[in-house]
Write a structure and sequence with these properties.
Elements: H1 2-10, H2 12-46, E1 57-58, H3 68-73, E2 78-79, H4 81-122, H5 129-141
Antiparallel strand pairs: 1-2
Helix pairs in contact: 2-4
């Protein structure tokens, strides 16, 4: 069983997946910072400094609260539609950023493969296996 586990871990796709998860976790911090620290303030500037995070409706009806945090601290049932709206906006921004990065990587890969094709086409092709066999046959006939 230990040998099977060792073979499983040693496969390339398992290691690739592990590296992808680790890089993805590190990349998440970068994208989250970009959204929270760079993009959301710009959106807030164009929308007049509006932050939807504190928009909520108290469902229990037992008072007014200055913020969503105060309502949650008091244990009131709050419908936090603003936080949900901001989460959707953040998701769309993150998805767009990831799309742009994947698009850039794909373009770079395509350019590299085209360069390899050009180099392969420029190299003179050697004789095929059939040509070599025919030459051997002809040489043996003599």
């Amino acid at each position: 069983m230990l040998k099977e586990f060792k073979d499983f871990i040693g496969k390339g796709n398992v290691m690739d997946m592990a590296v992808g998860i680790i890089i993805g976790a590190a990349f998440t911090a970068i994208v989250t910072s970009m959204v929270n620290d760079l993009i959301n303030p710009i959106i807030g500037l164009f929308m007049g400094g509006v932050d939807f995070t504190n928009n909520f409706i108290v469902l229990s009806g037992d008072g007014e609260y200055a913020s969503l945090a105060a309502a949650r601290e008091a244990g009131a049932a709050a419908f936090a539609y603003g936080a949900f709206f901001m989460a959707v906006i953040n998701f769309l921004i993150i998805a767009f950023v990831v799309f742009m990065l994947v698009r850039y990587v794909n373009k770079a890969k395509d350019a590299a493969s085209k360069q390899e094709e050009i180099q392969a086409a420029a190299e003179p092709a050697g004789p095929s296996e059939l040509d070599v066999l025919l030459e051997i046959r002809d040489a043996l006939k003599k």
